[in-house]
Amino acid sequence: MSLQSITIVLWGTPKKTGDWIDWYERIKELSNKIGHPITHLGIKSESNTSSKIVTVSRKEKQLIETIKSGEKIDSLSCLSLPKDYQIASFDFDVFFVRNASYVAVTIKDEYYTSTIEADIISTISDYVENYEGEIFSTSIKEVPLIYVATKEKSNLSTYNLIKSIEGK
Prior knowledge:
Blueprint: E1 4-14, H1 20-34, E2 40-45, E3 54-55, H2 56-68, E4 73-80, H3 88-91, E5 94-99, E6 102-108, H4 114-124, E7 128-139, H5 144-150, E8 160-165
Antiparallel strand pairs: 1-6, 1-7, 2-3, 2-4, 4-5, 5-6, 7-8
Helix pairs in contact: 1-4
């Protein structure tokens, strides 16, 4: 069992705001390549204000309809959770999130390879410009998105910078 997670984050300006379906489809492909298909979604928009995650089978059709309607999307989270998960923010295998400030991917360190790293950076960098980024590890008992959202390293007692990512 993995005791660490690896997060790849790019902070910056969204390149486009109307490409959410493209992003979602590419994230699904990437998650499948990692070996953990997306099982759950969380969307924040004008009509979806809850931060609750739901199964893909329950929410995917609504997600696509919401996007196609032109509704402004604030954030989209896509997770791969095991069937016996208890707390999504700790039990995920893969966690993707995109909003107006950043795009981030967190995976268990046992799935992390240089090829997966390159695939993740290649994919998420298509959706953000003027970015700065990092790859860092934390204990699976911590929530790396707290640091991603605040850039306050003190929010994570096990934060370990692996490397910085130079932006374009």
